[in-house]
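> forwarded from #structure-qc
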């Protein structure tokens, strides 16, 4: 891989690393923010939920916008929006300012991340080279979250405002690199399929844009995300929660009707006929839901029940980010040998085993008893999310890569929201039954809970992981995994589907995941990148030159 191609991957990975770190740092800083600004418990919770609403509500639209308005354009524009509103959060003096800042930061991620993923899938040759890039991307995302927990603790000690200002500085560096490295789209000869399609002026594209479908999709996703987030309140004001979810489902039905009649639909419904797309989305929803739910229970167990400091808990959980090393090293070998679907199944089995091992957790468990669960969960992440990113768009046409990316990203965001909300609701209900009035106190959702509440909450990730094993097993039985001879893979799954055409496969992002980003600001290179011969982005002569250099 040439130097320019590596630098491009570094910039794109920097974006998803920043996203994961941003979420983790805020989670650590919330107690300090609440104390300094005098926020209520409800407002503090919504500071985190606002990001989820913005991200989940607009990811589908963001993915399609990348296809229609240009991947480079969307990436650069919304990275700039991220910088602006992250900075606003650092200057916030009122709770509403934080809510606006976090909501718009989530919206910016909803447009920025699918664009980054579709740039990767059009810039590296389908096969080992692209797979390696996607696995590095997945590991970087997970490591960003893991490292963000530690960095967030350090920055909060300096002042919670730095949790917002630090991402601004990092994003500015990424933006400078992106302006230089991400190629501009160029017109292609009729019938050409490689790289990004030539982009028409935005005004021209918007004339045929599916505005009714976009409005219905955004409204449906926002309402469903809001309803899911409200589940963490248990039975409190449940009629409103049911009403919100019902309204969201009605808008989903309306969206499907609009897309069937639209001349240029926001989402071509035929894409759901590609089994690998559906299974990858459902699998990512289940794995992220289980992982994020478990991580929340673990954090509350260590800090609220065991009395560990945020710094001690963050260091203890670093092992969950082991996938940053395994994703670009071990996982590619397993995928080549056994195929995507078998590797995904193995990851789900490890995750299920990890969560089952933690079910009998005790009040005085030493760290050595927790370590096997943390290690297996981290390995499971490396074996599951990266291959799902590869499988998610096998057989999807190039001009729909942004759409496919948005679909997977939407699934991961909803999975995270479901997992977090479900474990919070279970802890609240069990605590309310055992100690009326104990749950959801000013100290947070874990305050006042006893060990039994944590054990019951752990059932949520166990169930979600078990469902993931079933979904992955169906994929293995169908023989849809792309990989090496050892796995009996069948090549790109679903290639040439009924409506997708023959475009190259694309991959999809994950939201939450982890890994450190070597070389940021220091000129280092990404680990594990090498081997294979890349196809440079066809959108730019500069990156073509990088491919020639690599050859």
């Amino acid at each position: 891989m040439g130097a320019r191609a590596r630098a491009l991957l570094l910039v794109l990975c920097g974006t998803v690393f920043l996203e994961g770190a941003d979420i983790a740092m805020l989670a650590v800083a919330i107690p300090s923010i609440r104390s300094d600004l005098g926020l209520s418990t409800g407002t503090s919770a919504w500071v985190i939920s606002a990001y989820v609403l913005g991200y989940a509500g607009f990811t589908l639209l963001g993915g399609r916008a990348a296809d229609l308005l240009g991947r480079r354009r969307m990436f650069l524009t919304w990275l700039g929006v991220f910088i602006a509103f992250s900075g606003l959060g650092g200057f916030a003096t009122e709770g509403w300012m934080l809510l606006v800042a976090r909501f718009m930061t989530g919206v910016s991620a909803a447009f920025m991340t699918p664009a980054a993923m579709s740039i990767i899938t059009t810039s590296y040759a389908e096969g080992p080279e692209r797979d390696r890039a996607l696995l590095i991307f997945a590991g970087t995302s997970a490591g960003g979250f893991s490292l963000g927990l530690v960095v967030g603790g350090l920055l909060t000690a300096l002042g919670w405002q730095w949790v917002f200002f630090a991402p601004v500085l990092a994003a500015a560096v990424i933006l400078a690199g992106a302006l230089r490295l991400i190629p501009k789209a160029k017109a292609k000869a009729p019938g050409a399929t490689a790289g990004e399609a030539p982009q028409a002026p935005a005004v021209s594209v918007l004339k045929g844009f599916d505005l009714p479908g976009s409005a219905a999709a955004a409204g449906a996703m926002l309402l469903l995300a809001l309803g899911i987030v409200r589940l963490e309140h248990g039975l409190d004001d449940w009629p409103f929660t049911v009403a919100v979810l019902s309204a969201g489902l009605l808008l989903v039905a309306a969206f499907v009707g609009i897309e069937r009649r639209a001349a240029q639909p926001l989402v071509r419904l035929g894409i759901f006929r590609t089994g690998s797309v559906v299974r990858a989305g459902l699998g990512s929803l289940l794995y992220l839901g289980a992982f994020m739910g478990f991580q929340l229970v673990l954090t509350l167990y260590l800090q609220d029940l065991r009395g560990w400091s945020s710094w001690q808990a963050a260091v203890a959980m670093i092992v969950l980010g082991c996938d940053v090393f395994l994703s670009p090293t071990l996982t590619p070998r397993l995928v080549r040998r056994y195929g995507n679907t078998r590797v995904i199944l193995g990851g789900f089995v490890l995750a299920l085993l990890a969560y089952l091992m933690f079910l009998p957790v005790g009040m005085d468990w030493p760290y050595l008893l927790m370590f096997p669960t943390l290690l297996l969960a981290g390995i499971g992440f490396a074996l599951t999310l990266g291959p799902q990113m590869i499988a998610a768009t096998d057989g999807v046409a190039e001009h729909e890569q942004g759409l496919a990316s948005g679909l997977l990203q939407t699934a991961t965001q909803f999975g995270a929201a479901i997992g977090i909300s479900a474990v919070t609701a279970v802890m609240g209900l069990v605590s309310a039954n055992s100690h009326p009035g104990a749950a959801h106190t000013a100290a947070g959702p874990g305050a006042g809970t006893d060990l039994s509440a944590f054990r019951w909450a752990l059932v949520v990730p166990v169930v979600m992981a078990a469902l993931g094993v079933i979904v992955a097993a169906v994929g293995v039985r169908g023989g849809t995994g792309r990989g090496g001879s050892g796995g009996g893979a069948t090549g790109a799954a679903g290639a040439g589907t009924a409506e997708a055409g023959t475009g190259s496969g694309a991959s999809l992002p994950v939201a939450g995941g982890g890994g450190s980003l070597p070389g940021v600001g220091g000129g280092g290179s990404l680990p594990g990148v090498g081997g294979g011969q890349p196809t440079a982005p066809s959108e730019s002569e500069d990156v073509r030159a990088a491919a020639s250099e690599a050859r």
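QC bot note: The chain has 19 helices and no strands. The radius of gyration is 22 Å.
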